[in-house]
Amino acid sequence: MVPVLVVWLALCLSGTWAVDRSNFKTCDQSSFCKRQRALKPGESPYRALLETMELTNTRLTLQLINDNNKVRLLLELYRLQGNMTRVKINELKPLKPRYEVPDVLVREPPTEPLSVLSQDENGVVLSLGVESQRVIVSAQPFRLDIVEGHNVLMSLNSRGLLAFEHLRMRKDTQAEPEAENKEEADTAHQAETTKEEEEKVEEGMWEETFKSHSDSKPNGPSAVSLDFSLPGVEHVYGIPEHADTLRLKTTDNGDPYRLYNLDVFQYELYNPMALYGAVPVMLAHNTQRTTGIFWLNAAETWVDISSNTAGKTVFGKMLDYVQGSSETPQTDVRWISESGIIDVFIMLGPTPKDIFSQYASLTGTQSFPPLSSLGYHQCRWNYNDQEDVRSVDAGFDEHDIPYDFIWLDIEHTDGKRYFTWDPHKFASPKDMLQGLKDKKRNMVAIVDPHIKVDSNYKIHNEIRSRGFYVKNKDGGDYEGWCWPGNAGYPDFTQPDMRAWWASMFSYDQYEGSMDNLYTWNDMNEPSVFNGPEVTMHKDAVHGSWEHRDVHNLYGLYVHRATMEGLIQRSGGVERPFVLTRAFFAGSQRYGAVWTGDNAAEWDHLKISIPMCLSLGLVGISFCGADVGGFFKSPSPELLVRWYQTGAYQPFFRAHAHLDTPRREPWLFGPENTALIREVIRQRYTFLPYWYQLFYHAYRTGEPVMRALWVEYPQDPATFAVDDEFLIGRDLLVHPVTEEGARGVTAFLPGKEEVWFDIHTFQKHNGAQNLYIPVTMSSIPVFQRGGSIIPRKLRVRRSSACMEHDPYTLFVALNTRRTAEGELYIDDGHTFNFDNKEFIHRRLFFSNNVLSSVNVAPEAQFTTKSWIERVVILGASKPRKVTLITAGKLKTAVCNKENKVFNVGCSFQVVLSVLHEQCLKEAPVFRVKIYFALFLFADGHKSQLDFDFDASVSVLTIRKPSMNAGEDWSMALQ
Amino acid sequence: MFWYLLLLWGGISAVEVQRPRGVPLSKRPFYEENKPFTCLDGSRTIPFDRINDDYCDCQDGSDEPGTAACPNGNFHCTNAGFRPTFIPSSHVNDGICDCCDATDEYNSGAECQNTCRELWRKEKESMQKLAEIAKEGFLLKQQLIQEAKRGLEEKQTKLGEVQNSKKDLETNVEALRTAKEAAEQPEKEAKERHLKAWEEQNAAIRMEKDKVRMAEVFIELDADGDGFVSVAELLSHSEMDPDSSDGSFTEAEAQELLGGVDKVNTAAFETIWSKIREKYVSESNTDGPAPVETPQEEVREPVSDNDSEPYPDDDIPEEEDEDEDEDEDEDMDDGDYKSPPVTRTDEKKDDSEEGAMPPYDQETQNLIDAAQKARNEFEEAERALREVDDQIRNLEKEISFDFGPSSEFAYLYSQCYELTTGEYVYRLCPFNRVSQKPKYGGSETNLGTWGKWAGPEGNVYSVMKYEQGTGCWQGPNRSTTVKLTCGKETVVTSTSEPSRCEYLMEFTSPAVCQEAPDLEVSDIHEEL
Lengths: 973, 528
What we know:
- Chain A: Keywords: Glycosidase, Hydrolase, Signal.
- Chain A: Residues 172-202 are annotated as: Disordered.
- Chain A: InterPro entries: Gal_mutarotase_sf_dom (IPR011013), GH (IPR017853), Glyco_hydro_31_C (IPR048395), Glyco_hydro_31_N_dom (IPR025887), Glyco_hydro_31_TIM (IPR000322), Glyco_hydro_b (IPR013780).
- The complex is a heterodimer.
- Chain A is an alpha+beta fold.
- Chain A has 18 helices and 54 strands.
- Chain B is α+β, with helices and mostly antiparallel strands.
- Chain B is built from 9 helices and 14 strands.
- Chain B has helices spanning 2-8, 116-221, 231-235, 251-257, 266-276, 319-333, 341-348, 362-400, 518-523; strands spanning 37-38, 45-46, 74-77, 85-88, 229-230, 263-264, 417-420, 424-429, 433-438, 445-453, 463-467, 479-486, 491-499, 502-509.
- At the A-B interface, helix 1, helix 17 and helix 18 of A face helix 1 and strand 13 of B.
């Protein structure tokens, strides 16, 4: 009676909208985590056998021995180019190979020589080359310290929590000796060890059950774990995906942060539970330095964080011992993974941007998305049929709201068979796609990786006959429940499977697809409704590996194969766009991610900021949250605020659950429609800036949406800020995320900085908390003084419609009255930019001269876009403004077809003359409308009209009209 | 820059009235050639050559009627041969053909055809078709209005009649009530007499039984058979302890029970018997008290989703049925005097040995029959009155119902219209309810009951709203919006579910047809 009642109460209290936590494991319920976490610090059994050290040009190897069981490990140490150190630890002679994560590194990282500086019986000191950086290998107990000068930057195994569960035979009977895998000479020792080990066999090592699911664990225990100490560090970041603050919390009083890709239904906020994706990268930061740890392991992983400054006196004492000081703050982290090896990349910065470039050199950068994908995306589960799509599309025009993509969720398929269309609701998909294409718009249709088991379904039959499905532990095709009912899961870890999958996207295979149809991969954790923790059984088999080994990689492979399909269908010409829910380190190379199934709640709006900031720190820039919230229905106020926030986040898509009422932007009354229209239009005006930032992210790995501390690394006030963010370095956004807000307090960083409100042009000093009164139309956004941002103010139906439109340059002057920025232009959708078909210009303002200089003279691209306006914020009034051009224009003008335009006969004559001049290859001219005539400028000088608004010190220069691709300068006198 | 300069000058055709591109004829006077131009909002004045120079000078966008320079501007498509229209400036030269005369794409490279005449032809055709429908529909509508008018008159007449007949009925009910009450009084008295006689007889029987029992108990108590009941013999029956709470039955107490003596004979026992009668437990009857019924363990389980559906899936009875049910219920409840008394005594008397009350004597029975007849007649009259009340209510409801400005929708009342789709049969019963039933078996789902007319202001009777249908999981109650359009036939033409549990039905009816719209065709404009 009592237990029944308790369960019943628990169900009642948990409510409908909370995650059912009992569906997901705690550390205690995950046997390896429990075992590893039970280890006590300061008792490391590992000793380095210095006599086994071998140093080659590229690496150092060394054996480690566990003095308790005599199992030997092999340590490999690499010094990598770009100030990184790689530490690999594996069993010296494992019973069978252990999984090493493939396909995540973009290449085998190039090494630099290591050299021994000194050596004695207790250790070795190696030089890392730069800045007197050294690695100290201590023999007993084994530990590694990376030092620079007198400062320890990072220590490994300093708490002695290195643990490596060696593979072993299952000792079902006493008779079977297990010793042959070991290396000891001393048989007495061996006997002792065996005995010790027997005592250590714990529940969960060889079999584990969770709820009704059992994990057969044929390989037994195989966990690895290592601790890292970070002296002087109080702030650590990264290891997404968690619905938590930007700055990671200590985990002493609860579960560690968990990295295990899971489909979490109605996830809760502010906790360390695993979500859809996992990037095992942590950044550590203080005012002096940023470092990073990349733990390359795709198995279930837990990360513990503790800090001596968080009041942990017990650790504090031990850390004091390590540090020899009681003053320095220190953060200790510890990584625990269920299988695989220890393969860790230590990125030594020292700046945040160095970390981004170091990490990018390992796993690649954000793919450069098609420009259209930076526009607004309209999604819903589901747009019901072609007529529905048509009418929503028409609704955007009717309400004069731009958008680039409309999305179809699972209901568009024929019975959840991906690559097909519902024959009644979507009978002529090409007509629908053509209708969108006629308006220069695009569509995304979902393709999930679970495949309906149905012998009448071509995709299923092909996968089955080619043996491409993941297998269960008994060798049959693994099957689980998902949207279509019983489903198989293709083994995306196999290259030939991925190649086949990619080929399914070709226009002749994917019936009804066209070049403006793109793809969305959902449920690729993978989600298995009836599997343990709603995912695949760990003992399922991918070729020679267990699902346990590859779990966190599955989604990345799905994403990759799909992206490759979209590239291939265009013959390698067009840039793909693929959205994924599951991800891993390296997923940035394949497209966009979103934060999964959030809810229409204010806290979910708030958490979208730290969630995307954390992803940006680990290379994944193309991030967004479902605008409006997926589950439940937002109030109009929440919806408007969410649009205002989402419009300033990289991936801008509204999405809604099937059971929620419709929420297209015009369904909440004219006032709210106007507010939403305004913010989507703002997004479109900034598209040139977003695009240029993505180009940068592609080139450098720097995040597009940026935590403040990245740009202000020496200002501790920025370190924990996650209610506002930077876009690039020049836009500061503090969205309103409080219900009924009358004002927000934005922190404007930088002692030397000034910030201009982009709406009012009001100037504010940096390094202050600024209270900003807000109304429903307010979106506090500031442009940094010292920056130049190109915008396109002629907002049209879609980004493609704006391609040839002119630019307005917003020049915000800093206290030194200078500014700089960039302008990047290409065709917006192909890979031709890789063949130098682009325009990349540097814009700078100093000494009252604004200039545009080509920073990629080797690149070739022509644009019809021109500069229609220059707005200088913080300017003083000039007497005159003179434009000086270098004379590149004539070809652009005279190659046009020979048309005569008139606005009345009196002008026609004049223009004809002018046109003839042009045909005679006259020198490039410039037209000055004010005088109702033209002048031949000879490509040199012309006076420009301007307006000056003294109340806010804004100078608007009217219609300089030079082509965006040419050299020019503009002098204020 | 030449290129951009070129954009400014609108060259449409030589014959066209000269005016800046994108300006409608009506606004031409504001754009006077070679004179300074004042923005239409009056905010500033600019030289004429800044009109359509592809730079936005006026906040209201009025200086750039022919370009995309102003974010809030409008471009006028002349659309010669068709209807002129304005498009947002953002549609000018965006590569998409918007004006049927192709004038919006004069510099985008888009290859737009002039489709105005074709459009006009199509529109004319469809408008003619519509006009025909509207014309016929409008005629039908007039009939409907006449019918409704007649129907209304009939109903009002009927109402008057019924209201009159109600008065007669009321008189009748009162008369019968008096008759009934008159017949019931003697019935009641006769019944009471009969009952009293029976009760007296029962009392005598009970007394006799008690005497027999007393004798039996005496013999039982007189364990030694000496003809006396002694203190000692009494003590063996502890249940007779007068203060049973102290748990001990003392000799003194027993003696007191026996009236202060040590033993009593049969006669003296008679006086004691009344004191111990209730407590005494026969030795032959050793059964303890009946076990207390223990409630079964209640196992509570969370309510499953299915059970939480506030409405059962099966048929919801029509309103009329419900009324009838209620009537029956009432009849069952208020029938005290109708039930024969015999059945009632069964429960009340635990002593069943006394048997049933003997049948009424003939005289009483005659009185009862007479009263029953009066009651039946009264009830009959009352029921008739209720029926008339219902009739009046229904008539009043129908008369006062909002069937449109001329009651043209009255013919839909108490009708139902069905549409069968791939999966379901949808059923619209106007002013009542909308439902959905799976085609191949399964229970019906209520998609909403009549709520209100919900068209936009000025056209309220174009949309019906049905609300509060069966609830949805984690969602609202189902509801249906019915859009009415003019048609000769009264048909449901389509259904859809644009949002979860919010249904949309298209419904044609002559009742929404308007006077033939000849005007619109003439709206087509053939400039010059």
